[in-house]
Amino acid sequence: MLRSLLSFVALSALISSPLVTAAPARHGVRDWNGWDGGYCTPDKIKTRYDFNSLSPEQRKAYTDAVKCLQSQPSNLDPVQYPAAVNKYMDYAVIHVNRTQYVHLDAFFLTWHRYFLWLYENDLKETCGYCGPFPYWDFALTASDPHAFPIFDGSEYSMSGDGLYNNTGPIALGPTLVIPHGTGGGCVTTGPFANQIAPLKFIDPSNLLTGSLPPGAFDYNDICLMRDLNAYVSQTYTNQAQVIAATHANNASTLEFLLNGVIGSSSLGIHSGAHFSVGGQMNSIHVSAQDPVWYPLHTMIDRVYWSWQINNPEVADQLDGSTGTALNTPPSPVVTLDSVEPDWGYFQLSPIQVKDLISTTGGPFCYQYDSVIA
Ligand SMILES: [Cu+2]
Questions:
Q1: Cα of 96 from ligand 1 centre, angstroms
Q2: Where are the domains of the chain?
Q3: Which CATH code is given to the segment(s) 2-368?
Q4: pLDDT tens profile 109-160
Q5: How far apart are the first and last CA of the chain?
Q6: Range 18-43 average pLDDT
Q7: 246 C-alpha vs ligand 1 centroid, how far in Å?
Q8: Are the C-beta atoms of 282 and 349 separated by less than 8 Å?
């Protein structure tokens, strides 16, 4: 524990410079079963940047790599998972399969941290992508997501809004109705224009029963949709809320500020960011079909990382909850020694929570360009 805290302190000290010239001290880092013995050293640490801060060419190199992954064959059983039509969709399908175990519970932050890492490495190994793994600073774009490169619909964006299709206010729960955004229909601009998102919508209320609807993995001819919503981003993902999360006193307060209370008007910045994009992103289960899911979740990881740096005394604390969403079905309280739910075929060997706590320990070797302080 002390070791990881020290590395956080060291890490925060060097964050002021985006060019990494030194790295956190790493004494006695455990050898990692299944990885290349890779100790995270100064020459190896990678830095993640805001998508909007990248050059147009860097942004396009990233979306080209995502499209490359979408052109690779699936490794899943096509009978069991017809929606897994390519390797990109394998991630989305595995995410659906694990949704009940890795959301609204104590695995949420670390499971997603490693899921992102697997995806980042696949972009590199399979598609030769060597650029930075970008996050989407949704607090910086909260005033109006359209107004920033990430959603401007150009070839250098993550694609734009959906076509305008006003179906009226959107009920997100018994007590939560949000106004319609500026889209609602298919995404027709940018790198991911006219894509098919074959997994049908799964309502978040399925988390209350812990079951998936019949045909959850069927192939459907459904377009990728968005409904960008500045009301939601201004209300739920603004700078003050993101800063409050990174200064939460403990892990359970952090979890509340991230995820709110499902079905209530307390959204949290994670759910808020999802609903500010709309379309498939309104489903916790199938949202990873939208490529912007990855920069969004990388921002959530940056909030987690910033919280760890800002609160070194509780950096490896878990939120005290169990290993199932809303404890459905009931499961034991998760500890640092608990074994993570798997990542499908991407996982080589069982991984414990404590191995995924530090971004410079276990399998990881990365940092962000800046701490949210
Ligand atoms: Cu998720």
A1: 8
A2: 2-368
A3: 1.10.1280.10
A4: 999 999 999 999 999 999 999 999 999 999 999 999 999 999 999 999 999 9
A5: 23
A6: 44
A7: 20
A8: no
